Amino acid sequence: MLAGTKGRPELNESPQRIAIQGELGSNSHMAALEALGASEGTGRTIEIVPCAVSAIVFERLLDGSADAAVLPIENSLHGSVAEHYDLLLHHPVRIVQESLLRIRFNLIAMPGVRFVDLRRVLSHPVALAQCRKFLAANRQLEAVPFYDTAGSVKHLMESRLSDTAGIAPELAARQYGGEILERDLEDHTANFTRFHTLCREDAQAMVEGEFQPPNKMTVAFAVEHRPGTLVQALQLLSAAGVDLTRIESRPVPGSPWEYIFYVEFRFSEQSQADHALAALQRHCHMVKELGRYQSA
Fold first, then answer.
1. 17-21 and 164-168 as β-strands: parallel, antiparallel, unpaired?
2. Which residue in 185, 276, 176 sits closest to 233, CA to CA?
3. Which one of 195, 221, 261, 267 is the catalytic residue?
4. Which tens digit of pLDDT belongs to each residue from 157-195?
5. Whose CA is closest to 291, among 233, 229, 211?
6. The model's pTM
7. Rounded distance between C-alpha atoms, residue 240 and residue 220, angstroms
8. Are the beta carbons of 74 and 193 closer than 8 angstroms?
9. Does domain 216-293 have CATH number 3.30.70.890?
């Protein structure tokens, strides 16, 4: 395993146990290593806690079996990960860091397997969708959706499939002993995923001083369902002098056609962020600050 040190961190030390959604060797695993300074050559190790679904990531974080979590929030091609906005709103966690990962997909098979031996390729549906040109040029390969990119390599290695490859990050090949047959299968080289590092709200002291001073903020809010209320909320942000970088809407369960709005904005001083938040609180019937962090 590439994961390392176990044990709870002491106060103001870096989080050691990091929960991710997906298997070891996934893009989320790579993002966690890079975001928390545990890439090869840094001399720093962390223990990755893989989780089958994102809801379990939050469970691990809140029950103390993970000290932090690293989750994708947006891909430059696929768009936002809507479920993660919902989970952020409904759990007592805080965004403490933003990071970017260049997404690269590789064709990975058992050692000794040749490309001409392959009959099918496994990967997560999003990964398959981002490698359409490769699949179109190799129609002899049956594209089979799988639950996880790295999980596809884990499966073919455990099952010793000699006619199957997985589309996954390079880390998956190292994790499970696979061999890379082709690299950079993605249709677009400008393929990036934005990740958030999360900690429990009551564990903020644990990460003080670990990350760069914040210049970006994520806020969730809801406004009354009448004309002009959203426009007024955005005007308040403009008046506060912050730079709106993203807005996302999510439906309110049980209230058809009503929405929670998530905004991200950059600021030059903490007082700007405080002013923007206070203005929203006066105007909206629900406001929740989800975190302040350094823009990636």
1. unpaired
2. 276
3. 195
4. 999 999 999 999 999 999 999 999 999 999 999 999 999
5. 211
6. 0.88
7. 17
8. yes
9. no
Residue boundaries of the structural domains of the chain: 17-101+191-202, 106-182, 216-293
Whether the per-residue pLDDT at 104 is higher than 90: the answer is yes
**Model pLDDT, residue 257:** 87
Instruction: Return the SS3 of 82.
Output: helix
Annotated catalytic residue 195 = yes
Active-site option among 193, 261, 265, 267 = 193
Helix (H) or strand (E) holding 29: helix 27-35
Question: End-to-end distance of the chain based on CA atoms, in angstroms?
Answer: 28
Tell which CATH architecture fits domain 106-182.
3-Layer(aba) Sandwich (3.40)
DSSP three-state, residue 239: helix
Q: How many residues does the chain have?
A: 296
DSSP state at residue 286 = E
Active site residue 261: no
Q: How much of the chain, in percent, has pLDDT values that exceed 90?
A: 81
Distance CA 107, CA 170 (A): 9
Q: At what angle do helices 229-239 and 270-283 cross, to 10 degrees?
A: 160
17-101+191-202 shares its CATH topology with 106-182? yes
Dist CA 25 CA 140 (whole Å): 27
CA distance 167 to 129: 11
Which amino acid, one-letter code, is at 20?
A: I
CB 135 within 8 A of CB 185: no
